[in-house]
Amino acid sequence: MPSTIEHTIEPVFDKRSRVLVLGSIPSPKSREQGFFYGHPQNRFWRALAAVFDEPVPRTVEDKKDLLLRRGIALWDVAASCEIEGASDASIRNVVPNNLKLILETADIQAVFCTGAKAGQLYARLCEKDLGMPAATLPSTSPANAKTTLPQLVQAYRNALSPYTASSENAPVLDVADVVRLEREIAKRGTPLALLMERAGCFLAHRAQRMAEKQISIEENALLNENDQIMDNARPEDRPRFIVLCGNGNNGGDGWVAARDLAENGQHVTVVCNVMPNEISAQPARDAAQAAKRVLETLPHALILATPTQEQLHEALSQADVCIDALLGTGFEGSHVRPPFDAWIAAANEQRARGMLTIAADVPSGLSAQTGKAATPCVKADETVTMIVSKPGLETPFAFAFCGTVSVAPLAYIDPILDEKKESALAKPRAASANDRTLDENDEKAAASDKRTAHAEAKRPTDRNNEFLRAEAEDDDGYDPYSDRRPEPEPLFQRDPWS
Ligand SMILES: NC(=O)C1=CN([C@@H]2O[C@H](COP(=O)(O)OP(=O)(O)OC[C@H]3O[C@@H](n4cnc5c(N)ncnc54)[C@H](O)[C@@H]3O)[C@@H](O)[C@H]2O)[C@@H](O)CC1
Ligand SMILES: [K+]
């Protein structure tokens, strides 16, 4: 029996959306979840994540974040219709959604429908009104068994790539600004703990991709169906991951990555110097404690705490991929203190043997601000840096330590950066803040924010000064260069040893 259903899920879009993707009407599973493509067998989110080489978003928040970051508006053609179950073929008496709502806000340059039925309905009910044709993409529904996941990814990639955000003009922000940005992201509803969760999952995703290359599975297959390939591999053929976790929030990223890899069935060894309950930094402590509880239940996961040099050497020598999450932006000084100095030396030795290394945020021992390398410093094949790149990673000599730098886009930051720029342009320049030399700026910033204490040298760039200026002149009175104001609330609980 057909039943009449009303569309109740709000569209996702904003003024930066450039492409509109439309389905027919949400399935019963999606309606139950309150979000698009909610059936676990539907491949929409897997395909989209693969197009952008990101981990598959899990929550509604993760999904919205991905769409907005990538400039994709998402809705359906039908506002109401008669339908039997989830069968597109049975759809009758369609009342279309008012799609103009999106076009009035966003400069939509292309429209795509996710399946033949949505395409037909759009052509019949919406195209004339909107004055834009739509291209039809293969359906991601499990009912469309003839289109494989790699084929879906290819089709969606070809369609979306010309319109979606590129990383060409990606910002590079000073470490102190990244801290302010994280705080602003948190204020707008994405807590630091969620950023850390995403950071860890991104690291795990990149590490798995690296491992696939390492065990030289055919490039084409691995590009898009990595989950399946990993699942099908015999346990003894699976790659071995080792995660070196420090005592701060960089270590927190590592614990989350280890948990995520282990949950995906991978062999993981976590090496740490303190147990999670002894970590003082937050959100790292909570994230590490939660990860430990999961790891302890999995037979293919191991936690190696305060290892001897021999134990560490043995664990590293069995690893295919090492995630370096010892020290991040909180690293300071020109030498790495024990025991991490020896851990770094051992990891570099194993990299020379063929192990691949992926650094969380910044190679441990490298200043994310200046690019200066301490003794010793991790040499990575890839650095997955969080939210935005930092100046130290962009210096030519940092390449030897960072390898390829990829940015994990943990949150939708464009509105925040644009607002900061706008407020910087709208307000007159504050002579006191902007006419200081860079050296003075560094001194003041260091005094007002502990997190810049390790920015030993001059800022190598002032290309993102708009962000700082806007902060300096914000109406809430916060001037990062001024010592007149009380110190900002610390973002993380600091490690008492540092
Ligand atoms: N909290 C959050 O929301 C997020 C945090 N992120 C991660 O947090 C990191 C920054 O975290 P923290 O500020 O806690 O700092 P880190 O974890 O980078 O470093 C602090 C730790 O390093 C130790 N340390 C400093 N200098 C040392 C030296 N010379 N030798 C040996 N040990 C030294 C300190 O004792 C402390 O334990 C980022 O790099 C990033 O990886 C990311 O997850 C993004 C989100
Ligand atoms: K690191």
UniProtKB/TrEMBL annotation:
<keyword id="KW-0521">NADP</keyword>
<dbReference type="InterPro" id="IPR004443">
    <property type="entry name" value="YjeF_N_dom"/>
</dbReference>
<keyword id="KW-0520">NAD</keyword>
<dbReference type="InterPro" id="IPR026353">
    <property type="entry name" value="Hypoxan-DNA_Glyclase"/>
</dbReference>
<dbReference type="GO" id="GO:0000166">
    <property type="term" value="F:nucleotide binding"/>
</dbReference>
<dbReference type="GO" id="GO:0046872">
    <property type="term" value="F:metal ion binding"/>
</dbReference>
<dbReference type="GO" id="GO:0052856">
    <property type="term" value="F:NAD(P)HX epimerase activity"/>
</dbReference>
<feature type="binding site">
    <location>
        <position position="361"/>
    </location>
    <ligand>
        <name>(6S)-NADPHX</name>
    </ligand>
</feature>
<feature type="domain" description="YjeF N-terminal">
    <location>
        <begin position="178"/>
        <end position="418"/>
    </location>
</feature>
<keyword id="KW-0547">Nucleotide-binding</keyword>
<feature type="binding site">
    <location>
        <position position="364"/>
    </location>
    <ligand>
        <name>K(+)</name>
    </ligand>
</feature>
<keyword id="KW-0413">Isomerase</keyword>
<dbReference type="Pfam" id="PF03167">
    <property type="entry name" value="UDG"/>
</dbReference>
<protein>
    <recommendedName>
        <fullName>NAD(P)H-hydrate epimerase</fullName>
        <ecNumber>5.1.99.6</ecNumber>
    </recommendedName>
</protein>
<keyword id="KW-0479">Metal-binding</keyword>
<feature type="compositionally biased region" description="Basic and acidic residues">
    <location>
        <begin position="436"/>
        <end position="471"/>
    </location>
</feature>
<dbReference type="InterPro" id="IPR036652">
    <property type="entry name" value="YjeF_N_dom_sf"/>
</dbReference>
<feature type="binding site">
    <location>
        <position position="324"/>
    </location>
    <ligand>
        <name>K(+)</name>
    </ligand>
</feature>
<comment type="function">
    <text>Catalyzes the epimerization of the S- and R-forms of NAD(P)HX, a damaged form of NAD(P)H that is a result of enzymatic or heat-dependent hydration. This is a prerequisite for the S-specific NAD(P)H-hydrate dehydratase to allow the repair of both epimers of NAD(P)HX.</text>
</comment>
<feature type="region of interest" description="Disordered">
    <location>
        <begin position="423"/>
        <end position="498"/>
    </location>
</feature>
<dbReference type="InterPro" id="IPR005122">
    <property type="entry name" value="Uracil-DNA_glycosylase-like"/>
</dbReference>
<dbReference type="InterPro" id="IPR036895">
    <property type="entry name" value="Uracil-DNA_glycosylase-like_sf"/>
</dbReference>
<dbReference type="Pfam" id="PF03853">
    <property type="entry name" value="YjeF_N"/>
</dbReference>
<feature type="binding site">
    <location>
        <position position="250"/>
    </location>
    <ligand>
        <name>K(+)</name>
    </ligand>
</feature>
<feature type="binding site">
    <location>
        <begin position="249"/>
        <end position="253"/>
    </location>
    <ligand>
        <name>(6S)-NADPHX</name>
    </ligand>
</feature>
<comment type="similarity">
    <text>Belongs to the NnrE/AIBP family.</text>
</comment>
<keyword id="KW-0630">Potassium</keyword>
